[in-house]
Design a protein that fits this description.
The chain contains 6 helices and 8 strands; from the N terminus they run E-E-E-H-E-H-H-E-H-E-E-H-E-H. An 8-stranded mixed β-sheet has the order 1-2-4-3-5-6-7-8, with helices on both faces. Helix 3 crosses helix 4. The longest helix is centred in the last third of the chain and has 19 residues.
Length: 263
């Protein structure tokens, strides 16, 4: 894999709705290597204007590290975070970045299936390596959390179970219900977001997650009753629910502020 390159602008794509806009300030971004036992893979690093701050791993949807993820990384950098988006499909194909369209769904699910065919321990190792790599960066001067969307929502949970991030945000991570036998290993404050009308995650799975953590006040489960899947993705018209996102995103920012900007 390539070594660190010079400055490369973030691929911002479409702007977020005004209601969801963060502190969009001048930030810098580039691809950087993430060391693993059998080499290295790439991650998209977004720095805040200050050049340093708390860290945040941001994990991809099935569309790869594309415009939504990098624009979200820029917004989070505007909030003062050093954001690293690991290229989790790298063992299948490096730097996949599919458009958020109906036409891309088949390709996205194909990448997902090939990724899912990898040994689970290899995926966990890549996830933990990304957390270790971000913590080791000189720009990171505080706690480090993990956050993910869709596939990345489940991967965020798996990383939080396998390692020790300072907090976890999981957006509509399908499949977590099947991994609740690992719930006791989740040791950090965690925020789960779901849509009540998600065709990929039924109400039984959401309730199972809620029940598994009912005695854990540091774990929150927030449901937008009328929202479907991927409701925060403002670059995917087929999924985006502006009303639900206008509620969920401020909740996420407040959660990150409490857990990562603590003195």
């Amino acid at each position: 894999m390539s070594a660190e390159k010079g400055y490369k602008p973030a691929r911002l794509g479409d702007s977020p709705p005004a209601a969801l806009t963060c502190q969009l300030v001048e930030t810098s971004a580039r691809w950087v290597p993430i060391p693993v036992q059998d080499g290295s893979y790439d991650g998209f690093l977004q720095l805040p204007a200050s050049g340093s701050g708390p860290g945040l791993i941001l994990l991809q949807e099935i569309f790869g590290v594309g415009d939504f993820l990098t624009s979200r990384a820029a917004e989070l950098a505007g909030e003062g975070y050093v954001v690293l988006c690991p290229d989790m499909f790298w063992r299948v194909e490096a730097r996949v970045a599919l458009p958020h369209t109906e036409e891309s769904m088949g390709a996205a699910f194909s990448y997902m299936q090939r990724f899912a065919a990898q040994p689970a321990e290899l995926t966990r190792s890549d996830l933990v390596a990304s957390l270790d790599a971000l913590r080791a960066r000189p720009e990171v001067t505080g706690p480090v959390g993990v956050m993910g969307y869709c596939l990345g929502g489940r991967l965020a949970y798996e990383l939080a179970v396998a390692s020790d991030p300072d907090c976890c945000v999981s957006y509509y991570g399908s499949g977590i219900g099947a991994e609740l036998d690992q719930a006791e290993h989740l040791r950090c404050p965690t925020l789960f977001h779901y849509g009540g009308a998600d065709p990929y995650i039924d109400s039984a799975e959401i309730e199972a997650v809620r029940e598994a953590f009912a005695a854990r006040p540091e774990v929150e489960v927030v449901v937008q009753p009328e929202a479907g899947h991927a409701f925060e993705n403002y670059q995917a018209p087929m999924f985006h629910d502006a009303s639900a996102a206008a509620v969920s995103w401020p909740i996420t920012l407040a959660f990150l502020q409490r857990n990562l900007h603590r003195s």
